[in-house]
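Project outcomes to date are best conveyed with an example. Our students and postdoctoral researchers have been running inverse folding experiments weekly, and each run begins with a structure described purely in tokens. The record below, which covers 408 residues, was selected by the lab manager from last quarter's runs and is presented without edits.
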């Protein structure tokens, strides 16, 4: 079959590089500006709903930073990394060692940091063992020890034409302080970077995560307000959505699938411009169109209902299954708000729940607040710094509305 040679280019997934990274120029320009800083006054928070394209944008920035003579270290932060201060320190050394392990210290440098070259080693390098060695040999609190290591790392690196180091951490909403255990890993990270930056050491933090991230940072340290430039990634603009759909197909003469402008319009509408949904719908459309061609249909159209049904079962249903009946009732009320795809308040929900013709028992304001807190923990709702709520999953309101009409 001749079609087999050209594979379906669309990539719905977590962190999967899209066939064409659409839009995001403004955000990328902002990042480039931060790379120009000699003294780091601003770090970055890159945030947004699930599937909006944070991870792939971060991946796209890495080569830009490297081209501008920065080193790039980082990984995904898990909850277990954030359990204790020491774990964060070890995380940083593990990531740092990947780029510094090749740096050879002069005998003088090695002596300065109290490292007598072991006889069996020809040279001392900034590998993980060295970093940990300095850490252990430094007296004081975790913060003091960590700072000492990072300062030494910089004193050895900056002679090599390195402009600075970007510490890029994805899933950073997992960072948290644990006052009950007297462990403050999040505050540690913020304190250490702020202190190094004050000493004009160009180590820049790029923290990436869900919208809960920035409020968490501010709660831990109010100076985070000034320390971070926050970029909130949103759905793609219409022209960028169009590019995300058409470029992967049009750029290749041997691509067997053509999508008409009206089908492109349907995909933009149904995806709401959200990158994950664009990739998901396009992947389905691509395969379906191939089948239609085989069956002799020359100009197939997008079977919207079928694709939405698949999206509902693949993406939304799992989340919905974990919601209780009463929570569903509350979500129905919220989805009925005119501003359901933006921000809403407890008061607005409460008013709506008392509106005439509503099937559910009305909800009191305190009950709503309580339930919203549970739904926040479940990852369906989030509360911003101004106490307003939104759905934490893109297009969840449309899904809920579909469920409600099915139940009736
Ligand atoms: N600018 C873009 N143009 C086209 N496709 C994109 C774009 N950004 C992201 N995508 C696609 O959207 C999907 C989700 O992207 P990604 O995993 O980066 O989102 P995320 O914001 O990191 O999600 P999560 O919050 O779940 O970590 C991927 O399939 C990716 O290929
Ligand atoms: Mg991601």
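After processing, the design step wrote out the following sequence:
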């Amino acid at each position: 079959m001749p079609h087999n040679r050209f594979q379906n280019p669309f990539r719905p997934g977590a962190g999967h590089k899209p066939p064409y990274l659409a839009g995001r120029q403004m955000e990328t320009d902002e990042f480039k500006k931060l790379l120009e800083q000699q003294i780091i006054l601003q770090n970055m928070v890159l945030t947004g709903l699930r599937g909006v394209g944070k991870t792939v944008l971060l991946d796209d920035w890495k080569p830009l930073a490297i081209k501008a003579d920065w080193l790039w270290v980082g990984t995904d932060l898990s909850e277990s990394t954030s359990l204790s201060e020491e774990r964060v320190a070890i995380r940083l050394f593990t990531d740092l060692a990947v780029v510094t392990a090749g740096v050879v210290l002069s005998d003088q440098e090695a002596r300065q940091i109290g490292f007598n070259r072991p006889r069996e080693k020809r040279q001392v390098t900034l590998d993980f063992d060295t970093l940990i060695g300095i850490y252990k040999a430094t007296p004081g609190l975790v913060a003091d020890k960590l700072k000492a290591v990072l300062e030494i790392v910089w004193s050895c690196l900056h002679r090599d034409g390195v402009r600075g180091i970007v510490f890029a951490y994805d899933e950073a909403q997992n960072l948290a302080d644990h006052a009950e255990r007297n462990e403050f890993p999040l505050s540690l990270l913020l304190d250490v970077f702020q202190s190094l930056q004050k000493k004009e050491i160009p180590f820049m933090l790029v923290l990436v995560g869900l919208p809960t991230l920035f409020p968490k940072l501010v709660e831990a340290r109010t100076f985070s307000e000034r320390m971070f430039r926050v970029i909130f990634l949103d759905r793609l603009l219409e022209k960028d959505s169009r590019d995300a759909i058409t470029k992967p197909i049009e750029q290749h003469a041997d691509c067997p699938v053509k999508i008409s402008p009206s089908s492109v319009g349907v995909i933009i509408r149904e995806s709401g411009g959200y990158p994950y949904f664009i990739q998901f719908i396009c992947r389905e459309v691509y395969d379906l169109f191939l089948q239609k061609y085989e069956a002799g249909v020359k100009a197939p159209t997008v079977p919207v209902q079928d694709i939405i049904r698949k999206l509902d079962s693949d993406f939304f249903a799992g989340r919905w299954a974990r919601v209780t009946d009463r929570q569903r009732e509350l979500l129905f009320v919220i989805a009925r708000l005119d501003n359901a795809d933006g921000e809403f308040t407890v008061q607005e929900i409460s008013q709506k729940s008392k509106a005439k013709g509503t099937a559910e028992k009305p909800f009191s304001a305190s009950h709503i607040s309580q339930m919203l807190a549970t739904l926040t923990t479940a990852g369906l709702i989030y509360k911003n710094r101004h106490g307003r709520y939104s759905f934490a999953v893109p297009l969840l309101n449309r899904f809920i509305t579909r469920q409600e009409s099915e139940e009736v």
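The longest strand covers residues 70-76. Residues 275-294 form the longest helix (20 residues). The training component of this project remains on track.
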